[in-house]
């Protein structure tokens, strides 16, 4: 269940009001080249920083205890999509070089061009630089894993976190990340994609409903954690 | 996320008002011998019937499309606890024979004796018979799988379904099943156990809170499924 992390409420870029940007369109104005690829253990420092930013955004830094070490010991232990999986969002002002390292049988990176009215100034470009000799930066991520519907008798995906760094928001990148998960679910013949949202976050709810999701009004999350969970150590 | 399946609201048996039954106590009255073990592919026919009963209980049979075949093709594909995992609850009027088949490095079956005021008449004993030459019957199950908290930087368990057959309810067996998952989470140093409940199911909410869980008031589940999900097939 979500670590108190409501996805930001991105909205499609004005230049692509009816859906996802067209990869075949000729870049005009200020093109932002974007790529979604599977994260690797080498990305853990960036992922850790993104999660920390998410905790700040949520005003929940007191709950943030993840370290690079704890992430390294729990992520990337299974093949992609079989357990915890991360899609990383990278952006660049220039077309991506072909990087065969990121192509796998599991997932071919998704590339899209967003045509923006203005160039984005990224004050953290150096911190989130991806690779050595390029202007590619990490702009966001989505972490998801399989869940299971007993009624459908098949798996789905649960999206734990969706995060786009501040200067890249409201351009359709959140929609691109979530769409990538939905598309992967369809490819795998999974039955559902689910996530959670705060009931007062009307912008996010509107955004998700426009993407085709239903918000279930009656279900509440129960959480057993901390000392209350620890009490079960010797209870059985 | 839960397949519209709120766990039943069991309450501890009168003979064990302060917690789980003591395995060392001498059986008095009408002992019910219970065992929690990992389910195996051989249990699929029983599991399928239990899920169907759950759909009837929830008045959601129109959503029930699982078949023994769909369960067989999606469950038991990973080692226990790494993906979708089922604990099966078996009961008997007699002590369980030692069955080394059910002992594994992953999980040692849990046995408890419940001392009841009356013998339980199980009208479906024949249907849910477990094994050939015994009076052991399958009484319920819990299906759970790992989830992940990015803030904690570690996994937890998500409980998708908890179900006890009608004649075995209100004796503490639901609590025993959920406690077994919580205990396993603690053993694996996981950070949380989570599940969902319907907001109007006050008995279940009270029961879960008594078990130490918090019910989170603000989070809502978003679900993308059916044609709305299918629309993402070629969207990216």
TrEMBL record, chains A, B:
Residue ranges occupied by any N-acetyltransferase domain in the UniProt entry: 86-236
Q: Would the keyword Acyltransferase turn up in this protein's UniProt record?
A: yes
Stored Gene3D superfamilies: 3.40.630.30
- Reading the lineage from the top rank, the first entry is Eukaryota
Keyword terms, alphabetized: Acyltransferase, Transferase
GO function term, MF aspect, one: N-acetyltransferase activity
Respond yes or no to whether keyword Acyltransferase is given for this record.
Answer: yes
Instruction: Supply the name of the protein.
Output: N-acetyltransferase domain-containing protein
Which species expresses this protein natively?
A: Salix udensis
């Amino acid at each position: 269940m979500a670590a108190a992390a409501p996805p930001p409420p991105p909205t499609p870029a004005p230049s692509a009001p009816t859906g996802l940007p067209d990869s075949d369109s000729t870049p005009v104005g200020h093109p932002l080249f974007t790529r979604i690829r599977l994260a690797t253990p080498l990305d853990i420092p960036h992922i850790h920083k993104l999660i920390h930013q998410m905790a700040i955004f949520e005003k929940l830094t007191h709950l943030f205890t993840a370290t690079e070490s704890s992430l390294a010991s729990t992520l990337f232990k299974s093949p992609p999509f079989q357990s915890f999986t991360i899609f990383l969002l990278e952006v660049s002002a220039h077309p991506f070089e072909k990087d065969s390292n990121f192509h796998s049988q599991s997932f071919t990176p998704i590339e899209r061009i967003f045509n923006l009215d203005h160039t984005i100034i990224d004050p953290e470009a150096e911190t989130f630089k991806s690779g050595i000799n390029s202007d590619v930066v990490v702009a966001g991520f989505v972490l998801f894993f399989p869940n299971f519907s007993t009624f459908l008798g098949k798996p789905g995906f649960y999206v734990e976190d969706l995060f786009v760094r501040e200067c890249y928001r409201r351009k359709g990148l959140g929609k691109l990340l979530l769409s990538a998960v939905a598309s992967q679910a369809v490819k795998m013949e999974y039955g559902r994609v689910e996530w959670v949202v705060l009931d007062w976050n009307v912008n996010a709810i509107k955004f998700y409903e426009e993407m085709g999701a239903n918000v279930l009004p009656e279900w509440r999350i129960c959480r057993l954690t901390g000392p209350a969970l620890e009490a079960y150590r010797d209870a059985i």
